[in-house]
Amino acid sequence: MQRPVWLLSMDSEQFNAPPTTTAGLSSYYRRYGARSAETHIDLVHFQHADDIERWLGEWSATGPAQVRAAAAAGLRPTLGFSVYTWNAAEFLALAHQLRQLAPELTLIAGGPHVQQAEDYVGEEALDVVFLGEAEVTLQEFLDSATPADWPQINGLAYLREGAVMRTAPRERCRELDSFPSPLDVLELTQPDGRPRYDAIAYETSRGCPFKCAFCEWGTGAIGSKMYQWSLDRVRSDWEKIVAAGIANNIWLADSNFGALKQDLAKAQMIVELKDRTGLPRSFATSWSKKHSRQVQEIALLLHRNQLLPHYQLALQTLTPEALRLSNRQNMSANEYQPIARQMSEQGVPIAAELIWGLPGDNLADFERNLDTLLATFPNINIFGYTLLPGTEFYARREEYRIEAIPVAGYGKAKGEYVVGCHSFSRDEGEEGYFLISAHILLVHGYIMPLTTRLLALTGAVPVSPLLRECLRASIAVVQNVLCELDPGDRMAVYEQRNAIYLAALASPELLYSTLTQVIAAHCRAHGQNPQPVLQVLALDRALCPRVGPEQDTLEHFDFAADQVQQALSAMSLPQESLAREPCTLRIRHPGGVGDILRDADGGSWLRGVVLAREDSTSATQAVALA
Asked: Which of 209, 197, 205, 282 is nearest to 244 (CA)?
């Protein structure tokens, strides 16, 4: 019989793609493994956590017997997990179940989440953890005769006589073309020729020269030289991907795309593929932290060819102490204003990325920085800081008094979200997550994005505290619908933000009348006339995503709403004279809230679109709130 080996992987809830990581391991062993002919590697890929229970039920019918037979034949059956934050809880639980069902099974794990091996070997049902790049390590491990050979295999951690033993570090591969393609062992199409996947994650390089204290890029590649595959290898794989019809997205899993000289040729290659085949439809990556001329050229090239959904500037924080502790104080990307201006002038959809909860930050500084960025970037993505094993902050969590709790920030998977540290209290930390919820619902959800931008551009009142006030008022609107939600539990609000969003949009009259009162009071408290702001809130209300089918409406405004929208979309303050020019606009609403749209992050996709300015002053609905 052949030795059975199972390699398990699972998608995040936001991204479904082929299991290129475990496929790469299988492909390498198939080419270089001394015992490859007598080994059968089964790639088990879960698209959703719910798939695990079904697979386990099927496996338990035949798997334990197969394991016992292989062990009796001296073949050491093995099952491995590719562990990331989004699947760690499910995979560790599954490991315990498998240990009960098949004690003879050797359970191994690798991936970014388990690089702090002492937290897993001996503590969880894992026999071995792989440290660093695993292609060569797994090949040597599967070819080893007995556990007595493990000390000679670099890059392992395992239990011996009750203590965790680490072998010598695995040196990173410099000649990446020696790794065969994961596509060699993956089936990208169905039997009828249809693509199995809509998107794919693909790496053209490994390594990252930066040492961000919060980041674990790859496995042990932080602060290291970048190595890359040849253009011939990349082209060969990309041709296979588009030939399989994988259409929606190629996500490039490189740490600093644009930093290497060869990256421009890769961008030109993806453009040529789209020109010739129509695929892929979009391209995403993690961009270089240095906004060089080449990076600009690549972004503009992809934008001109409609491949670039956004160019994301990973600022993470602007607070000086947080930058210092994160080892990011000297990054050129911190000089963000000229970058944002240059990209915006070229029409590139630029976005900024922030992380709340980094040691050294505090809510007051974070909110001031956010208000500044709201006046600079058309899009901002804010993430809660998840404490990752293997990072500098994880190692120094006691020094910085880091407090983290399990939170389902995106989907069902729980991460260890930081809610307190030496620079901010637990109360302040949770209020920061409340701010993230407010920003997602009110800005990303397209409830009051233009109002928020007007206030930020004006700079006369603090915007972030207002967002929090508006969210608290919005929760009160839906309290009778979401009876089990405790409005004082800010982390529960963060987890249930999408339910709050959908419930609020189901009662738009009450929602916007409530927001009107809150915004007017906030403006007056800071000595400002609320009239111009409430005019723009009327425009936000007219464009907000709606329940029901697609429909066209006529909306009457007591100001030049179309021109105000154009100015704010261009990150400019509208002319004061526009406030005195009434107009009627025909607006098309896609509808679909609660059916198509279930996530506040997608609100802008189903917002209303202005079709034309109407000559008639009649309207089906008066929406001026001032």
From this structure: 197
